[in-house]
Amino acid sequence: MNAIKDKLALITGGASGIGRLVALGLAERGARVVAWDIDEGALERISHEAAKLKLPIAAMRCDVSDRAEVYRQAAKVRELFGRVDILVNNAGIVSGRKLLDTPDEKIERTMAVNVLAQFWTLKAFLPAMIEKGEGHVVTIASAAGLVGVTGLADYSASKFASVGLDEALRMELRKQRSRVRTTIVCPFFIDTGLFAGVKTRFPLLLPILKPEAVALKIVGAIARGKKRVVTPPFVYSVYLLRLLPVRALDAVADFFGISSSMDDFKGRTHE
Ligand SMILES: NC(=O)c1ccc[n+]([C@@H]2O[C@H](COP(=O)([O-])OP(=O)(O)OC[C@H]3O[C@@H](n4cnc5c(N)ncnc54)[C@H](OP(=O)(O)O)[C@@H]3O)[C@@H](O)[C@H]2O)c1
After folding, report:
1. CB of 17 closer than 6 A to ligand 1?
2. Which among 102, 173, 203, 205 counts the fewest CB atoms within 10 Å?
3. At residue 98, does pLDDT exceed 80?
4. DSSP string, the chain
5. Residue 192 beta carbon below 6 angstroms from any ligand 1 atom
6. For residue 183, pLDDT beyond 90
């Protein structure tokens, strides 16, 4: 059975960056796609792009941090397009400041967009997947959800939470003997502009990733029902390094430049 063709996929933050590329990739493989985003300019651009490429991508404004809006727009999606088969929880933001320099509102917004929103979309779309005994939930977390990063306290916390959400959900579905699939995605920095200015000390081991390559891995994971995407492969070493005493783990993180990667962070600048 083809896991993508003729399925309905909904991607949050689907008009820019990784979300946009996953939307295009799934549509090229025969899915109908709904892209939710908060950026109206980006929504307009992806609508035009899809029309030009003759791809079935519907762009809708939805601020996923707004629970009522998520439920309202989810009802609209069901009414217009039917049951969502593939949910890609991708929308994410970053404050990029040291913990005590991060305004309270930014911390709250990061948690609302990067984590809480994932609960609202799951509440909206998972029941129908479970009922049908079919579906796929993709959670876009980050390598910063596997290791805490200096200058990313709220972001790292939100991504650790997403990793936990995926794992708990996977176990829950397994216990229910549900055939709904899950995928957790933990990439290192990607060249989308969200993390403009970040640097890597060992680009051969930890390259700044190309968005197209990451999107391809995500689409491939959906096609094959792969449960975990960690990229580049060197990030897998975190699982082993966690066996070290904390002091040694911290020294390794320093050595690999993780503690200084955010020093020149500029982040997304909207023209
Ligand atoms: N880029 C990286 O280095 C990197 C690395 C690891 C993981 N990730 C994760 O990958 C995901 C996608 O990142 P990306 O680099 O593709 O980001 P991106 O280029 O900024 O795209 C994310 C899209 O989500 C939108 N968005 C933000 N808040 C939203 C909200 N409340 N409701 C709906 N849409 C919203 C953004 O709009 P605005 O532009 O208006 O905010 C943007 O259009 C995120 O979860 C991110 O944390 C990224």
Report:
1. yes
2. 203
3. yes
4. --SSTT-EEEEETTTSHHHHHHHHHHHHTT-EEEEEES-HHHHHHHHHHHHHHT--EEEEE--TT-HHHHHHHHHHHHHHH---SEEEE-------S-GGGS-HHHHHHHHIIIIIHHHHHHHHHHHHHHHHT--EEEEE--GGGTS--TT-HHHHHHHHHHHHHHHHHHHHHHHTT---EEEEEEE--BTTSTTTT---S-TTTSPPBPHHHHHHHHHHHHHHT-SEEEESGGGGHHHHHTTS-HHHHHHHHHHTTTTTTTTT-------
5. yes
6. yes
Catalytic residues: 155
Q: Which domains does the chain have, with CATH numbers?
A: 8-255 (3.40.50.720)
Ligand 1: which residue has its CA nearest to atom 40?
A: 39
Q: What is the pLDDT of residues 119-150, one digit of tens each?
A: 999 999 999 999 999 999 999 999 999 999 99
Confirm or reject: Cβ of 145 under 6 Å from ligand 1: no
